[in-house]
């Protein structure tokens, strides 16, 4: 396993991390999920990402149980706050001081730990003053409940404003968690340059584009049974990529992966790790062998020819429009 610094900090994380969005507590039952976590540990993964909203807190419970007995100091555990939990009342969501303070306590209890290594704002809260959110983060850090803070899917302007307040409050703002893959590169025009300037790393999700870049979805054929595309929650993030044009282009990656001695999934993970602003690529899976395969992409240096070949193969199927960054943050906490 390769390890990289998280932002402008001394914390190292595994270049391939394990995340349990969509799977734990929903697609994958606890016993199978525990086997996946064990496979991640055996592959050298030390960084685990979750969120309180995943399966309405069940994912945190399963991850906490799966990591029980491990040396806590040898792990980096990340979680997030913003989206609704519990019954979804008016204060059960967002980045208000009330919700954040209650959420960190709930997450620590479910994860069976005294602290998380990274506590992340799961989206930007347009209804709470940023000063309130950052002060709550500072108090959580000073209470020893989180060591570092990060965000997810923030715009460059939001990143700058949050970072300025973090500096005033003297708390380590070290990461942004965006979607990023060879098919989805919207962070490249502005987010990545901004983060390089500020000393913030990317911890990216969906590096395999919800499984599309594995090549398992074939043009003109039905989606495989049990795949992400058949899951009610996961399918909404993948349907727009399941066109014959996109899938035909993805199939052109197979010989490039073979030439590098990699599976197509490994090629996809290795591609995002060629970006030196990416500290870690979050991967998931419903079977232990998927975890081991993904982890093997760490430390792989792709040739310039392969990188150019990926660009040529995917062509105009790649989403590059940086103006869409931030659209994932709801304008209202109740939407």
TrEMBL record:
State whether keyword Metal-binding applies: no
Question: Whose protein is this, by species?
Answer: Microlunatus panaciterrae
Under Pfam families, the record lists:
Aldo_ket_red (PF00248)
> Keywords of this protein's UniProt record, alphabetized?
NADP, Oxidoreductase
According to the record, the signal peptide region is: none
Which InterPro entries does the record match to this protein? AKR, K_chnl_volt-dep_bsu_KCNAB-rel, NAD(P)_OxRdtase_dom_sf, NADP_OxRdtase_dom
Q: What is this protein called?
A: Aryl-alcohol dehydrogenase-like predicted oxidoreductase
Query: What family is it from?
Result: Belongs to the shaker potassium channel beta subunit family.
NADP-dependent oxidoreductase domain: from which residue to which, for each copy?
Answer: 17-313
Any keyword Oxidoreductase? yes
Quote the CDD domains the UniProt record gives. Aldo_ket_red_shaker-like
Q: Which SUPFAM superfamilies match?
A: NAD(P)-linked oxidoreductase
**Entry superkingdom:** Bacteria
């Amino acid at each position: 396993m390769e390890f990289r610094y998280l932002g402008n900090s001394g914390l190292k994380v595994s270049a391939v991390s394990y995340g349990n969005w969509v799977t734990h507590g929903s697609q994958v039952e606890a016993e199978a999920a525990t086997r996946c976590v064990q496979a991640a540990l055996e592959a050298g993964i030390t960084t685990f990402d979750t969120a309180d909203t995943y399966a309405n807190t069940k994912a945190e419970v399963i991850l906490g149980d799966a990591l029980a007995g491990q040396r806590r100091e040898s792990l980096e555990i990340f979680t997030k706050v913003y989206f609704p939990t519990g019954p979804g009342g008016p204060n059960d969501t967002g980045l208000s001081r009330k919700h954040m303070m209650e959420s960190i306590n709930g997450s620590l209890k479910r994860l069976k730990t005294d602290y998380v290594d990274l506590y992340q704002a799961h989206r930007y809260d347009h209804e709470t003053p940023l000063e309130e959110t950052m002060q709550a983060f500072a108090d959580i850090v000073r209470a020893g409940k989180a060591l570092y803070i990060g965000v997810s899917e923030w715009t460059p302007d939001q990143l700058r404003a949050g970072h300025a307040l973090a500096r005033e409050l003297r708390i380590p703002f070290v990461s942004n968690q965006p979607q990023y893959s060879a098919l989805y590169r919207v962070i490249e025009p502005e987010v990545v340059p901004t983060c390089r300037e500020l000393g913030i790393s990317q911890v990216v999700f969906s590096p395999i584009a919800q499984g599309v870049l594995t090549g398992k979805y074939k043009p003109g054929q039905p989606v495989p049974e049990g795949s992400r595309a058949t899951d009610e929650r996961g399918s909404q993030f993948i349907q727009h990529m399941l066109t014959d044009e996109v899938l035909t282009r993805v199939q052109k990656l197979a010989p490039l992966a073979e030439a590098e001695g990699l599976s197509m999934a490994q090629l996809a993970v290795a591609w995002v790790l060629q970006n030196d602003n990416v500290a870690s690529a979050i991967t998931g899976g419903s079977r232990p062998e998927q975890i081991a395969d993904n982890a093997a992409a760490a430390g792989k240096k792709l040739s310039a020819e392969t990188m150019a070949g990926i660009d040529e193969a995917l062509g105009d199927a790649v989403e590059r429009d940086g103006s869409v960054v931030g659209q994932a943050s709801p304008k209202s906490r109740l939407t």
